[in-house]
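Session log. Operator J.P. requested a structure for one protein chain; no other inputs attached. Running the standard single-chain path with token output.
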Amino acid sequence: MPNNVAYQWIEGDAMASVFLQPSGTDAPSANQGSNGLSVDAQGRMLLCQHGSRRVARLGGDGKFEPLATKNHEGVRFNSPNDLCVAKDGSLYFTDPPYGLPKGEKSETQYHGVYKLAPDGKVSLVTKRHPVAQRHRPEPRPEVALPRRLGRARTRASQSATSMAPSCGDVFIAAP
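Structure written below.
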């Protein structure tokens, strides 16, 4: 994410190499790059783009297709950070403030978790989400775990078939 670059590692290579530059904006810039990366059911790359403050898909032509640029209230996201893809094709992603481009301010009073439905509708899952590091699907579709790496607690988000997390129960607490 620093230097607006996404790297790739190929088994057998000693070092990672540049895969995508820029990765978080449409044109080269000093803004943050992409952070959360995933693929959809068709194998297309999905990116949480800090610099452009959106969720996008990488097209076959190498251009970004914006999927979500504004939240359910019609304001820009802070800096989409991590995402996971549900079985129904919905995307769930976190939106913390720490990737905001220099000089830009948050347009929300919270750091939410959002759902981007296959029809393009963005909805807020929760405002109560602490700044998270990973939001990943578990093998069981009714459970997703936003993990807090490097922190003393990990919160489990249990959900119903709709994948709407309850976000709150402490799953692991380290001394």
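Operator note: The chain is about 0% helix and 35% strand.
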